[in-house]
Every structure is written in C-alpha cells, then in structure tokens.
Amino acid sequence: MTDTAALETLEQDVLAQIAAATDEAGLDAVRVGALGKKGSVSLMMRSLGGMSPEERQVMGPALNGLKDRLGSAIEARKAMLEAAALDLALASETIDVSLPVRPEPKGSIHPITQVMEELAVIFADMGFAVAEGSDVEDDFHNFTALNFPEGHPARDTQDTFFMKPDAEGQRKVLRTHTSPVQIRTMMSQTPPIRIIAPGRVYRCDWDQTHTPMFHQVEGLVIDRETHMGHLKGVLQDFLAAFFETDEVVTRFRPHHFPFTEPSAEMDVRYERVGQAVKVGSGDQWMEILGCGMVHPNVIRNCGLDPDEYQGFAFGMGVDRLAMLKYGAPDLRDFFNSDQRWLGHYGFSPLLQANMATGLS
Ligand code: 2U9
C-alpha cells in the first residue's frame, strides 16, 4: 500500500543520499536506485496500475512531482560536483612554464648561421644596418659598376658561374661577391651609408679550403669625411668583439682590388693552442680580411660625386671566420649535413648572440 506519507519518507531518504554523494559515480548510483528502471520511484509508478481511480488521482501527480524534484536535485548536485572536481584539477594540475621544453630540441644552429648572427650583432652595435640582395645578378652590378675592366680574369667563365642567356640575350651570373648589394644601396640611398652585406657567393672552385658556394660579409661606409683611420678603428673593434679578446694587434699590407684605392689586406697576430687558434696576441701573422677606400670610379658609377663623398669597404669570408673561431678543420664538412658534425659544431637555437650576455 502506497500513501503520501511513504512518499514523503522516500523523498527525504533519497534527498539525503543525493546530498551525501561525494562523486559523480556515487550520485549516479543514487539516481539508478530511485529513478532507474528498477528504482524505488519507478517501482511505485508501476504500482499505479493496480490502484483504484481515486487513489491513482492522488498518487499519480504526487509521484510525478516526486520524480521531477528528485531529478532536479540530482542535476543540481551533479553540477556542484563537476564544479568542485574542476576546481580541484585546476588547483593540482599546474604547469611549470619555466621547465625546459619536452621533447628536448635536437636541431642546432649551423656555425655559419651563428657567425652571421654574431657579425650582425657586432656591427649593429657600431651603427651598421644589414642589407641583402639576390644571388643572381647582372654583369653591371657584379662587375662593371665595381670598376672591373673588360677582360678582367674574374669575368672569365673559369672563375664565374654564368647563367644561360635570357630572353634579352643577357647572361646573368651567380654573384661572385656580395658587393652588388652595396652598389644597389649606393644607387638607391643618399649617404651617410653604413651597411654590412652578409650572404652566399659563388665561384668555380673546389678543394680543402674552397667550395663553389661560400659565405661573405662585406661592409660599406659612405660619408663626407671618411678616412682610413675610421676603417682601421672599425675593423679592430670588430676583431676584438668577434674573437672576444681585448688585445688585437693588426697590420695593413698594400694590395690591389679594382673597387678600392688604396687597397689593403689586414693581418692579425695569432698563436696556435693545440688544434685551435688564439687570435689577438702571439708571434704569427694571419691574413683575415681585405679592405680599402672605395674607388672614386665606383662612387661615380653609383651616381654620387667622389669629390663630395668618400668611404671605405671591407670583405671577409664567413666560413673561414667560423673555422678559425670554432676550430673546424675542413671547409667541406660545413656543407655535408652530417648530423654528428652538426651536433658537435652546432649551437643551441635558444641562445641568441648578443652584446650584453655574450656572442657564443
Ligand atoms: C663596393 C665597394 C667596395 C668590398 C671588399 C674585399 C676588400 C675583400 C675578399 C675577402 C675574402 C673576398 O671572401 S673573400 O674571398 N674581399 O678582400 N672586399 S674590399 O669592397 C667593396 C664592395 C662594394 C660598392
């Protein structure tokens, strides 16, 4: 026999169970026990069929009301338990963003890229901007503007990679130095100009110290009162910063380039320390770069007046700088993509060169 008092007792009982449920599984067990197929409320619903119409009129709505209230109470408790579980997860599942990344990075920065970054940082500190250009150049920007006479050996197919003639019959070249970048800068900007031009250059050459593609950095300063003293100061400061030493002893030896006059090669004192080379002091001289005052013809070829503007330029091989600084013996290894070599000579991508905390 079912009466409303029994319903009242059942309701209090189930509500107490709902309130006592401490997790979603426990709460679901209460739901099944009351509202599931064989649950206490469902069984009572089923007994409605055997009641008199008068009884059913009272018990029907009472049971429906009970079912609805228990359903709502279960939903409310469920929402509360979910919120509490989320709060607990947020409090316990913290992520330490200061930990090193996982999996540990395997890639490394190639020593040439590293040296290029170091060069950019050092020269930026002295007020130089980085300029770039195309690897494929025309004869004018690679040779003529730079005061190379017709018939100069560098214009020979033995030294230079020529492209097939294009639609206009023009034979482009793979640039043999980054100097066309400076030519284009001089033709498009007004002095003062202070730039370095790092990049790939190409020459027909292949042995232990020469690869057909190699890397250069050239520098150019054009202003009204620029002289060899500025050139020497800039290059000495550069070498001290690059080789991370206070003492650099250098000397100029006269040389010849078509694009500079006077021209010089700069030597730096060094000594061997085991396999490595210590640059700065020592009793031996090593040629490190070429330089000079920009030839008046070059200034004129770029549309500037050489009586108004002078400047200096320098050039050096980036690969050789990397070999000297980091002690790699064979230039050809730089381009073999050997993972073990790269692992040994490569640099962490997470440590960037800068003047404040160190270059390498
Ligand atoms: C302009 C005017 C002058 C760039 C210069 C050198 C000296 C030099 C070599 C070093 C080793 C090439 O990689 S290497 O074989 N370069 O000695 N380069 S002066 O002179 C310029 C450039 C552009 C407009």
Automatic annotation (TrEMBL):
GO terms for biological process: phenylalanyl-tRNA aminoacylation. CDD domains: PheRS_alpha_core (cd00496). It catalyses: tRNA(Phe) + L-phenylalanine + ATP = L-phenylalanyl-tRNA(Phe) + AMP + diphosphate + H(+). GO terms for cellular component: cytoplasm. Its main location: cytoplasm. Belongs to the class-II aminoacyl-tRNA synthetase family. Phe-tRNA synthetase alpha subunit type 1 subfamily. Tetramer of two alpha and two beta subunits. This is Phenylalanine--tRNA ligase alpha subunit. It comes from Maricaulis salignorans.
